[in-house]
Design a protein that fits this description.
The chain is α/β, with parallel strands linked by helices. It contains five helices and six strands; from the N terminus they run βββααβαββαα.
Length: about 160
């Protein structure tokens, strides 16, 4: 997995909602599938207040034009996840739009992360994937991704 902080990078021809906070590339090879699959995932990270708005879901949804999976990561107080209309409304909106929903109470403690729903997998034009990686990932990560793909491809089934 290759992860990049993409929050401050200006997207080519991008607008307000064209910069995911975090982006990740996963290179996947299954035992009985001869091809390597590459998945681009984006994560829109929001605080307690910012995540409680439906616009947070739509911001994550806008990333689907260049990602295979998009997630809303919501940093919330421990006691408020299951309670309240705003959580239920956000959860339902994520569900209907295929957006993954992750809550976290302490970003420094992995035990406080909870995946409420996985993001729906979408197909992505390989040229769009290339453009995103070249424009948003560091050269170091780009080379590492290319090396990893080459290594996966050179392995036999």
């Amino acid at each position: 997995m290759f992860v990049e902080d993409t929050a401050r990078l200006q997207a080519p021809n991008g607008g307000r909602w064209s910069r995911p906070d975090v982006s990740a590339i996963a290179i996947i090879r299954a035992r009985f599938e001869p091809n390597v699959r590459i998945e681009l995932m984006t994560f829109e990270v929001k605080t307690q207040r910012g995540g409680s708005q439906l616009t947070s879901v739509y911001e994550a949804l806008s990333h689907n034009r260049f990602a295979n999976r998009s997630f809303l990561v919501w940093n919330r107080d421990t006691c408020t996840c299951e309670a309240g209309d705003s959580f239920n409304e956000i959860d339902a909106c994520c569900d209907s739009n295929g957006i993954g929903l992750i809550t976290v109470h302490d970003p420094n403690d992995r035990r406080t992360f909870k995946i409420w729903r996985d993001a729906r997998l979408r197909s992505l034009d390989p040229r769009d994937l290339d453009e995103f990686i070249v424009s948003r990932f560091s050269e170091v990560n780009q080379r590492a991704i290319e090396t990893a793909i080459s290594q996966f491809m050179s392995r036999g089934p």
